[in-house]
Fold this sequence. Notes:
The chain has a single domain, classed as LmbE-like (Rossmann fold). It is built from eleven helices and nine strands. It has helices spanning 2-15, 21-31, 47-50, 70-84, 111-130, 153-167, 182-198, 239-250, 275-282, 287-298, 304-317, and strands spanning 35-36, 40-41, 61-65, 89-95, 139-144, 171-175, 203-206, 233-234, 266-269. The strands form two sheets. The chain has a seven-stranded mixed β-sheet, sandwiched between helices. A two-stranded antiparallel ribbon has the order 1-2. Helix 6 (153-167) crosses helix 7. This is PIG-L family deacetylase.
Amino acid sequence: MLKRLFTRRHLPKLLNLIPWSEQIIKKIEIKRGLYQYPDKMLGRKLPFYDNQDVNGEKTDVLVFAAHADDEILGLGATLYRHSQKRDNIKIVYTTNGSADWFGAQSWNIRADTSKKRAEKRYREGVKALSLLNIPKENIFCLGYPDGGTQRYLTNMSDDVKNLLQTFNPEKVYVHSVEGGHIDHDITSFVVKYTCEKIGYRNVFEWAEYHRKQPIGTKEIIFLPNPFTTIDETIIDISEEERNLKKIMLSCHISQDIEQFYTQGEAIRRANLSNLAIELYTYCKLPKFKLKSIVKRFTLTDKSPSNEREEVKEWKENF
C-alpha cells in the first residue's frame, strides 16, 4: 500500500525532471490503450466521433474549460447572465478529470478507476450546468489526461479547430495563462493559438487562481500581461448569483469545492500574440520542457537570439 502510494505521489514529480519524460508517459498511455487519438480517448464525448447529431442552431457562447468545475469557478455568474438572455451555451472540457487527490494521473493508476472517475466528473458537470438550463447535448469532453494535456497539443488543436468550424460561436471563453494549473495554461495556449491561426478573434479569457491568488479569492484580478492593453472587467456578483454558484459547485461532490463559492470573476479580451512567451513566463512546467513542447507543436525553429529578444521585450513591458 505504501509503495503504491509513493509511486502515485512521487513518480510523476521525479519524471518531471527528465527532459524526455512526456514521450515516455505518452507511450505508456498508448500501450495501455488509454489514449489513442481520436477514436479511443478516456472519457471523450464529442459529436464528431460518437455519431451524435450536431444541430444547425446558432451557438452564442463556446467555453473551453480544462476540468468540470472550472467553468463555474471562473464564469458561473457570467454564464448565468448569458442563460438569462437565452443564449445558446456550449461547454467543452479538455480533460477527463481522471487524476486523483494525490496528483496521480491515469497512466499510473488502474484503468477502471480512471474511467469511473472520468464518468463521475462529467456527470457532476452535467448536473451543475443543468441549473443554467444547459442541456447534456451541449456539454462535451475531449478526453485528454487530467494533468497531461502537455502531451497532446496537436490533437487538442485539431479538436478546437473542428469545434470552432462546426459551431461557429459568437464568443469564446477560455482560461488565462496564470500558473495555477498546468491544464489551465495548456488549454489557454492551445485555444488561443488555434483561434489566431484560423482568424477567429472574439476570444475572452477569465482569471481563476494561482500561487498569489488562491482559489476562492473574492477580489480576483489578472496577472500582468504587457501585451494585453484592454482593461479587464470585474464582474459584480449579486447575492443571488453567488448562492447559485454555491449550489452549482456543490454538484461537484468529488472535488469538495462548494466552499470556494466566494470566487470572484474577471474577464478580458484575450491577446492572441506572444503566446509562447506568456506560457514560458507563468506555466509551472519546467521551461526546458515547455520550449521543447511548444517547438514541436508550432513547428517553428526560432533561433536563440530571436527568442532572447522576445523574452527581453516581455520583461521591458512590465
